[in-house]
Each structure stands twice: as C-alpha cells, then as structure tokens.
Design brief:
By secondary structure, the chain is mainly α. Helices cover 67% and strands 9% of the residues. The longest helix is centred in the N-terminal third of the chain and has 26 residues, at 3-28.
Length: 66
C-alpha cells in the first residue's frame, strides 16, 4: 500500500475520532441525557461498561445508544 493511500485513511480516522468525542460531549450536556442519567445511574453505568455509545439525533434534541 502506498503512502498516498495510507495518509488519507489516517486523517479520516483522526477526524472521525475527534467528531465522536465532540458529539459525546454534546450528548452529555443535553438536559434530557442528564435527566436520564440521574434517573438510573446503574443502568447508565451498565450501558457504558458494555461499550454503549451515545449519539445525538439529527435535530439535536434527543439521543440514542449504539
């Protein structure tokens, strides 16, 4: 594999990771997320321990888990 093919793939991976961290921060500041986390901290921690990731809906008003 040539260096010309490797560099764009590496840059894409870095950008995707940065976007995921930014989105995670946005989700965690969402009032609905904060309310849900406070309502059942054990359930939240279970999801995190199992590798769940939290994502904003397209309208930015809610979230979902993967």
């Amino acid at each position: 594999m040539s260096i010309q093919a490797v560099i764009p793939a590496m840059l894409l991976a870095v950008v995707c990771a940065a976007n995921a961290r930014a989105e995670q921060h946005e989700v965690e500041s969402l009032p609905l997320f904060i309310q849900a986390k406070k309502a059942d901290l054990k359930r939240y921690q279970f999801a995190v321990d199992k590798g769940a990731t939290f994502h904003l809906t397209p309208d930015g008003k809610s979230f979902y888990l993967l």
